[in-house]
Amino acid sequence: MLLKMIVYIVSGLGAGIGTGLAGLSAAAVISPMLITFLNFDAYEAVGIALASDVLASGVSAYTYGKNKHLDIKNGLVMLASVLVFTLIGSRIASLVPNSTMGGFSVFMTTFLGIKFIVKPVMQTGQAQAGKTRRRKITESILCGVLIGFICGFIGAGGGMMLLFVLTGVLGYELKMAVGTSVFIMTFTALTGALSHFAIGGKPDAMALIVCVLATLAGARGSALFANKATPEKQNRVTGVVLTVLGVAMILVKFVF
């Protein structure tokens, strides 16, 4: 029981830090932790992770919005296609072998951490200022289709892809991108969690409650820090946290 509580709390705090700092999906941390250390069914683990993401993303969005780092108007454009394809991805995920989802999630966590350390996402300023409003809307919808499917399918990667799209494609600055990302992820995670629970049944109650509370605490603290930190520091801290967690899970799963 003690081991379970430690894994719930550590995974939740790690997920919350990633959410508050860089708008990452909590499932990038929680689901592989539950799968690797506690042998959770992968589909149930993703459902718990998505549920944990709801409040964590919501409180992060509030914090970024309070600091004027949230673009609700343009964020809503992407939200519709993300929600639809989250449902589709969630349904397909229920048909995929458990080992496939588990292995992918473990390596995804490590990859995300290394990515943020080696090649941090820095401010892009007005790089995409020349694009028309119509083109930006079209790009947002198309990218939302892919992001939603990934979030529903594995519960991981959606937050990172949102960050990439908002900075690299739509030209957002990092803090504005993170704020808008967690705003979208609040609704995406809620849709994905409800879909997972409807298809897979009720999750472990204790795991759900502890992960939700720990993720919420981590997200609140890291979001407050992120709104005062430099973009480079945001990336470095997030990268270190995810890399450490990812390497630990790979060692447990494939070495010990």
Provide a descriptive summary of the structure in words.
The protein is mostly helical and 256 residues long. Helices cover 80% and strands 0% of the residues. Helix 1 packs antiparallel against helix 10 and helix 2 crosses helix 5 (98-118).
Q: What's the helical proportion of residues?
A: over 70%
Low-confidence stretches: none
Beta strand %: under 5%
Overall pLDDT score: 81
Q: How many beta-strand runs?
A: 0
Name a few traits of the molecule.
mainly alpha
Could you give the topology of this structure?
Elements lengths: L1 H21 L7 H9 L3 H25 L5 H22 L4 H21 L14 H22 L3 H12 L4 H27 L4 H22 L4 H24 L2
Brief write-up:
The chain is mostly helical and 256 residues long.
